[in-house]
Backbone:
């Protein structure tokens, strides 16, 4: 078959008729296969390591991206039987809880909810593959790379023909499946390489910088498509990321850039309640909703690290596509009622 024999239909532009397109267009039949392969491969990867799957609620009072310094998303609040609550933006805190029950770590595949409007790189509701392990930042970065290689190998083995029809090639799967350790660069090194150009490096306020999408693209091109950006300004990330002991203005966290840009976010967590309380104060986040989290770390201190992979962003890379709205079987846009 010719390259891109199956193309995304763009049916998200007509949400009321989208479900009919899903039933009739081969793009979505292929997408269903890819989702299934990722689910099975994720389960087998963690099972072989003795990492436990947690069954968790989708509501929470302890969101991981509160409105404060370092917040990178808007929470979604709902009312259940008259009680305000949040739909989970992540259940990372519960995975940290799980590490105290399962010594080899915990994981899940489940939906996450964000308050920003959908666009080419964001969905309002997306699937999250998240895990937390006992260990530090280097440990979880190595684990992420092993996981991604396994996912790429799984797609090749079980859905290679579908990927070839959607992406026009499977060479990128082969490259990642057999890749050596991926390159790393610190945020400061990245900012220097980009000459702190405001097109590429955004400064929200002193001590709080982040990369723009354009900056991410320049770095990916420079490093052959994949690069970790580590040790960002602590004020630019959520409060739960651990301080770098050698420079407490930096966080022990890392984003893996590939495909459209940031596709994996990872980090080491505060091991004890003292450093967590300090971070809450620094980020100007009320400690009330996180008192249980702090008590857990005070009574059961543990060094853990975790990551989150956006499944639809990974599939954007796998299909060599450029609009994440074509990676949802059923559409959900904030502020809209869409059936089914």
Residues:
């Amino acid at each position: 078959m010719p390259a891109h024999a199956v193309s995304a239909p763009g049916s998200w532009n007509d949400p009321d008729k989208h479900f009919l397109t899903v039933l009739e267009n081969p793009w979505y039949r292929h997408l269903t296969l890819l989702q299934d392969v990722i689910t099975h491969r994720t389960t087998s990867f963690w099972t072989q390591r003795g990492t436990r799957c947690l069954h968790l609620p989708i509501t929470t009072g302890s969101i991981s991206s509160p409105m404060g310094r370092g917040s990178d998303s808007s929470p979604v609040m709902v009312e259940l039987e008259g009680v305000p609550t949040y739909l989970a933006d992540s259940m990372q805190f519960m995975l940290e809880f799980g590490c105290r029950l399962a010594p080899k770590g915990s994981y899940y595949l489940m939906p996450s909810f964000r308050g920003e409007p959908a666009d080419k790189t964001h969905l309002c509701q997306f699937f999250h593959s998240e895990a937390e392990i006992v260990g530090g930042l280097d440990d979880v970065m190595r684990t992420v790379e092993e996981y991604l290689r396994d996912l790429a190998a799984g797609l090749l083995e079980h859905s290679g023909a579908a990927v070839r029809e959607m992406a026009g090639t499977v060479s990128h799967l082969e490259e990642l499946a057999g890749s050596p350790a991926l390159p790393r660069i610190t945020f400061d090194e990245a900012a220097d390489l980009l000459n702190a150009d405001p097109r590429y490096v955004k400064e929200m306020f002193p001590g709080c910088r982040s990369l723009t999408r354009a900056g991410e693209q320049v770095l990916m091109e420079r490093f052959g498509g994949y690069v970790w950006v580590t040790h960002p300004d602590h004020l630019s990330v959520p409060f739960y990321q651990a301080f770098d002991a050698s420079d407490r203005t930096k966080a022990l966290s890392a984003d893996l850039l590939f495909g459209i840009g940031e596709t994996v976010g990872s980090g080491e967590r505060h091991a004890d309640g003292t450093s967590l309380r300090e971070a809450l104060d620094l980020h100007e986040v009320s400690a009330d909703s996180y008192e249980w989290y702090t008590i857990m770390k005070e009574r059961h201190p543990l060094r853990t690290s975790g990551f989150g992979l956006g499944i639809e962003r990974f599939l954007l890379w796998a299909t060599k596509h450029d609009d994440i709205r074509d990676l949802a079987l059923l559409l959900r846009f904030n502020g809209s009622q869409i059936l089914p």
Remarks:
- The mean pLDDT is 96.
- DSSP finds ten helices and 15 strands in the chain.
- Residues 137-167 form the longest helix (31 residues).
